[in-house]
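seq/struct pair 1
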Amino acid sequence: MPVDACDMQRFTRDQIEAFMARCFTATGIPCADAATVARLMAEGDMLGKDSHGIFRLPGYIGRLKARGFNPIPDIKIVEDRTAMALLDGDNGMGHLIVNRAAEIAIEKAKKTGVAWVGIRHSNHAGAAGVYSNMALKHDMIGLYVAVGSANHLPPWGGTEPLLSTNPIAVSVPADKENSIILDMATTVTSYGKVKVYAQRGLEMPEGWMVGPDGKALTDASKADTGHLLPIGGPKGYGLALIFGILAGTLNGAHFGKDVIDMNADSSSNTNTGQFYLAVDIAAFMGVDVFKKQVDAVIAEMQSSPTMPGIDGVRMPGAGAHAAYADRSANGIPLPNPLLENLASVADDLSVDRLG
């Protein structure tokens, strides 16, 4: 049966973070690192990215138990120049590695104006916008790109899945308006969202996936028989390709046929590639001036006359800001099928269940 709002239970962020931290600690991750991963995952849930927060916990725990993740990685810089660095994650949890890359890029950008940090030997790191947002409190623009953790997209005109969702997130600060947050896959939807639909028994909209016959696939439970569609046809394919080269090939990480499906393989080193770019606004103009100009851009976009049936022009990130406000006040909604999985994880690890 499909899951609806009546099948949801809400939990505070603190409850969810504490539960995930307990689970990670029980698998051998040091307490401080477990808390960091839990915080970054919960931040994804707060932003409304239900496919990239606690939803991922059972899969992550499975990989930790199979030693697909290194619970105590030696994350280190292997190449270092004034405005760039290359980070080796030693197969640790992607959240820890990307968080460190963002910190390095932001610190470098304070001196150089712009800084780029590439990443290799990483793993799936959850919601992309969590990391691009890290630059905002430093009055910077943050940009994050990743090679997806499983191939579900053929090259344009092909049939073999050689590309992943390869997402990008860009966060831009504003003054009185909410920040702009572009967080998107290069496919029409993320595969994680497909998995959420499958778990909740929901039918996918046409246009997300096609089956082996080339016709629309709407049964999420059969997603492994089809493939995702790129945004904008060949343009989305082109973006996925270039992002894969920049985040994967350039860093010595896996791309193309070398990408390992973390959902199907729990023990292999995925060597996931990512990169983080930080741009210090003050290197280009006064921060206050920039933020006010971004406000003006937002006002201009939102004042545009709308097409029939459209209530108003939305800015990228509007949904995330709305979700954050709702979940801060009312808690994070979790469906019963997920809660059952989380209870099994807790019992298996001999830790207290959520809530």
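seq/struct pair 2
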Amino acid sequence: MNQITSFFEESVGLSPPNQNKILYSIIILVVLGIIRYTIQKIVWRLTEDPKTRYTWKRTASFTVGFLNIILIGSVWVKGIGEFGAFLGLLTAGLAIALKDPLTNIAGWIFILTRKPFNVGDRIQIGDNAGDVIDLRLFQFTLLEIGNWVDADQSTGRIIHVPNGTVFTKNQSNYSSGFEFIWNEIPVLLTFESDWKLAKDLLNSIVRDHAENLSADAEKRIIEASKKYMIFYQYLTPIVYTSVRDSGILLTMRYICDARKRRNSEHEIWEDVLNAFARQGEIEFAYPTQRFFNRNIENEDSPL
């Protein structure tokens, strides 16, 4: 052993104390790495839920990383007082040189403690919207929705957002608290259509699709009201009537799952088209143009 120590001291220039510190640091890294690997293996065997696996993986990584810093730092810095002074100087230097990374770390701590969103939630922050699929020390990752794709469906793009953005941008959460959103489907009819019959048909269709969701949403609101000031007097689907320049507008408003908005519109529209096709008194309105020719109009008009 002494020969190995002497060899490294002569060839590399490492003193025996520094060699011991390096050896202890390697042992700490290996032992904590084995513990982290073992925890992941146990979790992988006990559950197949992706969210549970991800949570344990991230928790183990953060914990092991923190212990590595503390234990290895205590090996290289003599005494608690010296270690505290070292951390103070290090923190002061980092605060000046690494403002943005420290802001992102503060954002990470804010996200973990205040929980404006969790992994798996659907959120919008600034101009970016998507499902949160990862949360790291400096950034979180979204699977983008919307943009050039209609009805909040995934685009397939991955967006990396700095954690510090939570301090400067508004955040909208589709999933936390109240897990439903209000959706509206406008149906424009001609003035000559039987709008009362059309409204009855639309009421029947939207209730068939959303009545059960309204009952479930009422239960969720009771739970959400314990944390947020969320209150809705009516959750049942409704059809509103209004008039536009080109016809009568009937708007279906109903509760739907935030992740199933497009599917709900697809199913409702198919039922609407089938129902209207069986009625001769209902016609959709659409933009039209009329050209006026004075000579032809004068010839056709009676004297």
